[in-house]
From TrEMBL:
The lineage of its organism: Bacteria, Bacillati, Cyanobacteriota, Cyanophyceae, Spirulinales. It holds the Pfam family BFN_dom. Residues 1-132 form the BFN domain. It comes from the Bacteria. This is Bifunctional nuclease family protein.
Length: 167
């Protein structure tokens, strides 16, 4: 799993649908997830630390978790099926942990309110992420090509001997 942060909300240029954009820690990959208008408003409100006069749905759920002495340890976006993302809330109370099915947009809105981490499975990122820093990606590919080009059989023998002596 890879921890992601909310980079912001964007609008699809064609459909004008909101998209929440998650980025990895190195800002190399971004994961765009289409969401509803209400979830977009809720995420923006959390990003801007807005406090409504009365609790809205995600604020209410956060208040319920607090009242029942439960915490949101993390959210996990675990799969992508037929262009639909799936997520779970990982809730804890004492030593007990439960996973609750959730839309990613709701999970993200709750994670922002509770300061909980947002994790995404590697296969979801591989299937749906977009590169953000193409220059860094190319530099990394070039460095790897150079590494491979300069490898000698002796390097493997030396490494194998070193690992055997550590055992």
């Amino acid at each position: 799993m890879i921890e992601m942060k909310v980079a912001g909300i964007a609008l699809d240029a064609v459909t004008r649908s909101p998209i929440v954009l998650l980025k990895d820690g190195s800002d190399r990959r971004a994961l765009p997830i289409y969401i509803g208008q209400e979830q977009a408003k809720s995420i923006i409100g959390a990003l801007e630390n807005q406090r409504p006069p009365r609790p809205l749905t995600h604020d209410l759920l956060t208040n319920i978790l607090d009242a029942w002495e439960m915490s949101l340890s993390k959210v996990v976006i675990h799969s992508l099926q037929d262009n639909t993302f799936y997520a779970v809330l990982c809730l804890t109370k004492g030593e007990e942990t439960r996973e609750v099915d959730c839309r990613p947009s709701d999970a993200i809105a709750l994670a922002l309110r509770t300061g909980s981490p947002i994790w995404v499975m590697e296969e979801v990122i591989a299937d749906a992420s977009i590169p953000v820093d193409r220059d860094a990606d190319e530099e990394e590919r070039e460095a790897f090509r150079n590494f491979i080009a300069n490898l000698r059989p002796e390097d493997f023998i030396e490494r194998d001997r070193h690992q055997s002596s550590e055992s």
